[in-house]
Amino acid sequence: MAGKSSENLDVLIFVIITVGMIILALAIICAVFFYQRKLQRRKNQLKNLEIAYQKDLVSAAIDGREQEKRRIAFELHDDVGSTLTAVKFGIASAKMSIEEKQQLNDNLVIAINKIRQISYEMLPSILDELGIVAGANSLISNLNSQVKEIDFSIQAVNDPKSENQTPDIELAIYRVLQELLNNIVKYADATTVEVLLIQDEFGLDLTIDDNGKGFDPQTDVDKTKPSLGMRNIAMRLQHIGATVNFAKKERGTKVRVQWKTTT
Amino acid sequence: MDKFDYLYIILYYSYLLPLVLVAVLLITRFYNRELNLIVFLCLSSASSEFIGEAIYSHGLKNSFLLHIGQAIDLMILIGIFSQNVIKPTAKLAAFFVLDAVILFCLIYGFKISLQNQPVYASLLVGITIICLVIYYYYEIFRYEHIDDLAGNPVFWIKSTYLLYFAGTFAYNAFYTSLMFGSMRENVSLVNWILIMICNLVFTLAIWLGRVQKT
Question: Which of B148, B150, B178 sits opposite A14 (nearest CB)?
Answer without folding.
Answer: B178
